[in-house]
Specification:
It is built from 24 helices and no strands. By secondary structure, the chain is mainly α. α3 packs parallel to α11. The two termini are about 20 Å apart.
Length: about 500
């Protein structure tokens, strides 16, 4: 277990819609803030109805996990059956009914299913609060085993039909799912805030799952549970497939955007406080990362020392973030900015925090388009960079990531008894060192490169070399995560 959500892990592994909200993907300080909120949740009881998560006993946690597995199985089956019925009806109608089911119509049909409520919803505890509570039981084998049933669900598809779904077909289906999910998100964002607020997070997820499942059944003639069965079958091979990883990441981020858009915005004062804290912390992180890289480059600090120092820095950042009232994801930050952007103080704090480039980076990595409220990249004063230069930087980044990853792998292999590295910290360290190397050689920082990449997005998307380099970077980072994963029992 890590700070990453168990349900998000399921989404990343299987591309299963309706699995939950993904964790934050910003820089070191944002991950540190996510970690620190576990402590504040247990002290303050961060729940939707005041029910303190910390009062749950171990037995109650096991009961909640078991009931969640049962309820999710029922919901998945009911939604899959409904999607199949609707797809079959629409196919039989042929060209008579071309218009797709609207989001509001889908929401109505989901409500008519009268699905059982999620256990956490029943007792008034948020998913995030409960998932953070689970981190206290990382060493409890029984709790972790039950929790992993959410990540590794029992496949309900037909094994024989699943055998006919190849890895290429799985990727193709997930690419289609991304396109359909984008339609759902776009439609939801076009609704007025009052209508959006009528959706619970779970209703958003279930409705999106229904609409995407209908499209998959109708246009690709495959059952969604068979797709999931095939994904389970090829799980190990898919973990190394960059395109599959990109698709599942896109689905996760769009689902997060969907559910976040339904929630009320935090108060302006809390948003400003969060932005100012990020600005201060980001500046400290930049200074730290630059100094660490220079020492690593001069070989006065090896990769193991670099990791330990990076870990210490993240832990200290965690402590400094404990006073924050809100722990906002990039999507929530963007939605808050869209809400309060007319305030000069908000615009200034937004710029100082570098929030726009972080949001654009997240958008570029996952293929999402920035919202119409985003600040125009043209307004930023950045170094003029040609598309060919960005491609060259991407290639160089691949080389640096590979070199640092190999150094980390060698160090881990030579000291198997050492404390395992934390995936989030290791991935951020590798990225930070590689980015610092790119900045030293080309004189372009990560934020400038992000803005330049956004400005030249159309040209870069047509560059096979750029696409390959981007995919290779993702593959290397996945290798870093796998290096930190504990070996299965018996190995």
């Amino acid at each position: 277990m890590t700070e990453a959500s168990l349900l998000s892990d399921k989404l990343r592994r299987y591309g299963t819609l309706g699995a939950g909200i993904v964790g934050d993907s910003m820089a070191t300080i944002r991950m540190a803030q996510a970690s620190s909120s576990a402590a504040s949740d247990s002290q303050q009881g961060a729940t939707s109805s005041g029910y303190p998560a910390s009062t749950l006993t171990r037995d109650q946690i096991l009961d909640v996990l078991a009931e969640t597995v049962r309820v999710q199985s029922i919901v998945q089956q009911e939604v899959s059956d409904l999607a199949r019925r609707i797809a079959k009806e629409r196919k039989s109608e042929g060209k008579k009914k071309k218009k797709s089911l609207s989001l509001l119509e889908g929401h109505k049909k989901v409500k008519e299913l009268n699905l059982p409520k999620e256990p956490l919803e029943e007792i008034g505890i948020t998913d995030a609060a409960f998932q953070r509570l689970l981190t206290q039981y990382e060493e409890d084998e029984e709790v972790m085993l039950k929790a992993r049933e959410l990540v590794h669900p029992v496949g309900k598809g037909d094994p024989e039909r699943a055998k006919s779904i190849t890895i290429d077909k799985i990727v193709e289906i997930h690419q289609f799912m991304v396109a359909e999910m984008q339609k759902v998100l776009t439609e939801f964002l076009s609704l007025d805030q009052e209508t959006r607020s009528g959706f619970t997070s779970k209703a958003c997820e279930t409705t999106a799952e229904l609409l995407v499942s209908i499209a998959v059944e109708q246009h690709l003639s495959v059952h969604c549970e068979d797709v999931e069965q095939a994904v389970i079958r090829y799980e190990q091979m898919l973990q190394g497939n960059a395109e599959f990883a990109r698709c599942t990441e896109q689905l996760a981020n769009m689902m997060q955007h969907l559910t976040s858009a339904a929630q009320p915005r935090v108060e302006k004062a809390s948003f400003l406080k969060a932005l100012r804290h990020i600005a201060e912390s980001t500046q400290k992180a930049k200074v730290f990362a630059k100094k660490l890289y220079e020492e690593y480059r001069a070989k006065t600090c090896n990769v193991v020392d670099a990791y330990r120092r990076f870990e210490e820095f993240a832990d200290s950042a965690t402590q400094s973030a404990e006073g924050l009232e809100e722990d906002l994801t990039p999507v929530e930050m963007q939605l808050c900015f869209d809400e309060y952007r007319d305030d000069p103080q908000v615009r200034e704090a937004w710029t100082q925090a570098g929030a726009e480039s972080s949001f654009l980076m997240s958008s570029m990595m996952t293929g999402r388009s920035p919202s119409s409220g985003s600040a125009a990249p043209e307004d930023k004063k950045v170094k003029k960079t040609k598309p060919s230069e960005i491609v060259e930087m991407q290639d160089y980044m691949v080389d640096e990531l590979k070199r640092i990853c190999e150094a980390a792998s060698t160090s881990m292999a030579g000291n198997s008894s050492a404390t395992p590295w934390r995936q989030d910290i290791a991935m951020q360290m590798v990225q930070a060192l590689a980015s610092a190397s790119v900045e030293r050689r080309f004189g372009v920082g990560a934020e400038e490169m992000t803005m330049a990449g956004f400005q030249h997005a159309a040209a870069l998307q047509k560059s096979e070399r750029f696409v390959r380099a981007t995919e290779k970077q993702q593959e290397i980072l996945m290798q870093v995560a796998q290096l930190c994963s504990p070996a299965p029992a018996g190995e």
